[in-house]
């Protein structure tokens, strides 16, 4: 069952453009996270937003109406934008100018690789009969939280 079939009475275009709502969150999020990272440190500017982003992603998956899907996608986008604005600054703090280019190349590959592979993996998840669109939202966050978040704390 698709997302627009779940919420009857909602405009089809509105539900198909939930990615646009999250993208708007990505556009406005760096206005919040970049200054926080500069004033309070990189760890405060990057790690707590990851946890909150995961919570909003799970909130999207359990939403009962279209408005809550749109709100959680927008707020999740704001919190998901923290690494986009803060990781280049953190790499500038960690690496010497000679090695910084290689580190930024790998970060750029990861940033562009996620949106490239996301629809492919999402389509594979959604086409399984036992899984619907609700299973697609928490999966990337759960993978990240299981491996990446624990390592970054220490």
Summarize the entry for a quick read:
The protein is 82% helix and 0% strand. Helix 4 runs antiparallel to helix 5 and helix 5 runs antiparallel to helix 7.
Q: What can you see in these coordinates?
A:
With 154 residues, the chain is an all-alpha fold. Helix content is 82%, strand content 0%. The chain has 9 helices and no strands. It has helices at 3-6, 12-16, 18-28, 30-40, 42-61, 66-80, 82-94, 97-127, 138-153. The termini are far apart. Mean pLDDT is 77; it is low at 149-154.
Poorly predicted regions? 149-154
Query: Major beta sheet, specifics?
Result: none
The value of Rg in angstroms is 17 Å
The average pLDDT score comes to 77
Q: What is the number of E strands?
A: 0
Helix content: over 70%
The 3D shape can be described as globular
- With helices defined by DSSP (H or I, 4 residues minimum), what is the helix count? 9
Q: Beta-sheet strand percentage?
A: under 5%
What is the terminal separation in angstroms?
41 Å
Structural class of the secondary elements? mainly alpha
Order of helices and strands: HHHHHHHHH
List the SSEs and their pairings.
Layout: H1 3-6, H2 12-16, H3 18-28, H4 30-40, H5 42-61, H6 66-80, H7 82-94, H8 97-127, H9 138-153
List its traits:
globular; 9 helices; 154 residues; mainly alpha; disordered C terminus
């Amino acid at each position: 069952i698709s997302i627009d079939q779940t919420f009857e009475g909602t405009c089809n275009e509105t539900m198909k453009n939930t990615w646009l709502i999250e993208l708007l969150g990505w556009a406005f999020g760096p206005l919040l996270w970049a200054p926080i990272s500069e004033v309070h440190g990189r760890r405060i500017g990057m790690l707590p937003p990851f946890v909150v982003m995961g919570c909003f992603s799970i909130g999207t998956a359990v939403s009962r109406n279209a408005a809550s899907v749109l709100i959680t996608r927008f707020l999740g986008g704001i919190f998901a934008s923290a690494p986009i604005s803060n990781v280049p600054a953190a790499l500038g703090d960690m690496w010497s100018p000679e090695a910084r280019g290689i580190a930024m190349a790998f970060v750029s590959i990861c940033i562009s690789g996620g949106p490239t592979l996301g629809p492919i993996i999402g389509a594979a998840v959604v086409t399984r009969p036992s899984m619907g669109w609700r299973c697609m939202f928490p999966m990337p966050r759960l993978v990240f939280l299981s491996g990446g978040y624990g390592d970054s704390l220490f």
